[in-house]
Each structure stands twice: as C-alpha cells, then as structure tokens.
Amino acid sequence: MKKAEFTLDSVRDSLIRQEDTIVFCLIERAKYPLNSPAYNQSYVSIPGFSGSSLVEYIVKQTETLQATAGRYENPEEHAFFPDNLPRSLVPSYNYSQVLHTAANSININKMIWDMYCNQLLPLFVAEGEDGNYASTAASDIDCLQALSRRIHYGKFVAEVKFRDAPRDYEPAIRAKDKDALMKLLTFEKVEETVRRRVEKKAMVFGQEVNLDNVNSKGKYKVDPSVVSRLYVEWVMPLTKLVQVEYLLRRLD
Amino acid sequence: MKKAEFTLDSVRDSLIRQEDTIVFCLIERAKYPLNSPAYNQSYVSIPGFSGSSLVEYIVKQTETLQATAGRYENPEEHAFFPDNLPRSLVPSYNYSQVLHTAANSININKMIWDMYCNQLLPLFVAEGEDGNYASTAASDIDCLQALSRRIHYGKFVAEVKFRDAPRDYEPAIRAKDKDALMKLLTFEKVEETVRRRVEKKAMVFGQEVNLDNVNSKGKYKVDPSVVSRLYVEWVMPLTKLVQVEYLLRRLD
C-alpha cells in the first residue's frame, strides 16, 4: 500500500475486496468434506512435529516457506505460528509504515484458528472423508489467511479513524476505557450493510452459473446465512477487538 | 471419487465445478500486479535452489510439503516438479483406480507452466510491483494447480468416453492415428457452450457486488474475454492433447 492511498476510502475498498476473497475461499473449502483425520493430532506422526495435526503441520511449514519469501514483512500479514519463523531471503520491499509500532504486538490468530476449526468449519462443509487431506489443508490455509488478514486489518481501520478524529479517541485511550472505545467504533447501520452484502456475495458467487439464465434459487455452494453469521458473530467483533487493542496502544 | 460415481455425468459435473475454481483463482491472482521479480531467476539466491526463481522455489517446496501429506496419491493431481518428491507420511487412502495404469506416465505440466507464466499472466494482471511476492507466488500455485487438475482431467474424460464406445476408438488407437482420435474427441458445439459459460462465470464472479442492484457493466476483476481465450486457446486443446495421449496407451 502506498502512503498516498491510505485514506478512509482506500481502507473501505480493501475491506470490501477482502469479502470476495473470503467467500471464494469458503466456497473452495466446501468442495471437500470435513476430512476430520486432517485435524486429529494422532492421525499422522511426522518427525519433528509430534502432537501436530496434519493441518497444523502444513500451516506451520507453509508459513516457514512463505516467511523465507518475505510474506510477513507486509504489515497486513500475521502468522499463525509466529515463533521461530526464518528471516526473509528476499530483498526487502519498502512497505510504507502507516501503523504505530505497537501494532506488531497484536496477533489474535489463536482465536481465529479456534473459531475457524472448531466453530465455522462444521457449519459449511459436509460430513465425511474423501482422502484429499493435503488439498483440504491447503484450502484451510487460504481460508485462515484470508480471515486473519481481514480481521487484523482492524489495525488500519483504527489508524485511519484515529487520524480522522484523534480528539474523539484520546480521552478513552488515556482512560484505558475499552467499553467506550468499542462504543466509538460501533456503527450498527454500517454493520448491517456489511452483513447483507456478504450474504449477497455468497449468493452471487456460490450459485450454479449456466447459460439458460435459470436462477439456482436456494442452491448455493455455501449457505449464505453461514457467511452472514461468520461476519456478525466473528469477523466484525474480532475486527473491533483488534481496533480496541490497537487504539489502547496508539499513544504509547 | 467413488467408483459408483464415475460416469459421463460425474465427469462433466467435475469439469463444470472446476471452471468456478479456475475463475476464482484468476480473480485472486489479479489482486496483485505482475510482480516480475518473483519470476526472475537472478532476483533471489536461495541455498540449494540456485537458478530458481522465487515462484519456482515456492512451487517446488510447496509440492514437497504436499507430497508428504499425500496430495499426489490422488490420480487427479500432478506435480510440476515430480522428480524426487518425498513419499507420503499419511496413511494411504484407497482412491478408486478407474484409469489405465499408463495414465501415470502422462504429465504435461511443463507446457502448462510455460503457458501460464509466459502467455496468460501478462493478459490479466496489471503491470508493476507491490512487494507481495510471497502472496503472489501462493496465488500462482493455486492457479497452476487448478489449471493442471482441469487439463489432466482429460484422462478421466477419455476413459469414460472410451468405456462408452470402445469400438469407435479402437481402430484409431491401433493405427496410432492422433488426427483421427482428435477428430473423434472434438465437438465444436460443446466447446462453444463451454467457452460462453466460462466467459459468463468471469462476469458473474468478477463483478462488483453491491446492495443497490446496480450492475457493474463492463467492469470486471478479470476480463471475461481473457477467460474465454484461456479455454479456447489452451485449456480445451491441452485437455484434448491429454485425452489423445491417454487413448494411445489405452490398449497397452
């Protein structure tokens, strides 16, 4: 992101574009059934990864690989297993630093992992197994990374809101008043618009497209109400949690 | 895939579903500009990977990881760098074997790689760089794997067609007559339907979805005519190439 582009509009555009990514990822994950052995810590025994499920192993190893390629130099990206990641082997790119340095200490991926694996997955994938554990795990990484990026984008949302009206936020920040901050960050009408839009995206992107212009009414690859629920129960509340955590450190 | 499901209809359903995946992958890749350093063999120097571009390095390493998770046990999957892949560490899944064993010797991923990196990419991504080389490469893997799976699915298409009418194919197979086989496998009307459908999918999935029911006429995340061209110039011809190669070995 270039500095010139960091405005309330650019932040909003990014959030809207990320909705498409999240819906695509869920639709792709739904191609496979649950494949529960991939989440079972005793299903595989991989040297050096005892106690890891196949999905944990693949996510850890993928993050290691992507770290060498510089993924986590981008302040929009957050690892699920950030400890002991190797350094980037790629010449460093000059990402513009728009966030307060305290942003680096905020990573709620443990909560996102738990939400995704234990609560969200069973809501939108079929039961059963088809043996495609590697592809399932690759698809899980896409979902996890898309959700993580969207939720941690709360840092940018908070920063742009703070810059827009610092005096509105400073008293609550100094008082460490989380409830007051949460109130300042909550716009029910906006949240309802987002909810309706992601539900519609699930309908548009998850329909069966054919040339007869026959609408696949009621038959979607991922239930639109699940996408709506994902945003209402998890994505928007967790984004606001990130915003509050960021703002609490904004004057440090 | 269960044996019971291997019919002309199940094969067609899979091909249609894979169109959605391909369009989603292209739309996601188009979020990033070309990021040409990722394809430049002198941009990075990674120990043990001299002469590899960042994308080659990431694809090789991802395939190694996915091989340990059993990805290539599935006869629908083909590696881009199949030499010296490690064996799977996952209990083997009993994929039903519907293909002739000669299928294992067919892998045209070199052609697919060349087509994707050198011809397709510049048609649908913007010029320039944004530093997201790792994410770009991850997105390239998704595209490459989706295209590879779709094109090599020609093995299943050929098998189901052969089973349906072995006598139509046997003379051309015994005569090793590629042209005659290609003619038997070509249905211009079906190909035109596929072309129009993928173009429409690019419009539906690549539109800006909003709540006003305003159509984003003419503004798509990936130009639908590029998706149409991808199928006409590459996906369908390469699928038929796979079918011909498979049928030539079908009576061995």
TrEMBL record, chains A, B:
Claim: Amino-acid biosynthesis is one of the keywords in the record: yes
Matches recorded under PROSITE patterns: CHORISMATE_MUT_3 (PS51169)
A Pfam cross-reference name: CM_2
Involved pathway(s): Metabolic intermediate biosynthesis; prephenate biosynthesis; prephenate from chorismate: step 1/1
BP term (GO), one: prephenate(2-) biosynthetic process
EC identifiers of the protein: 5.4.99.5
Protein name: Chorismate mutase
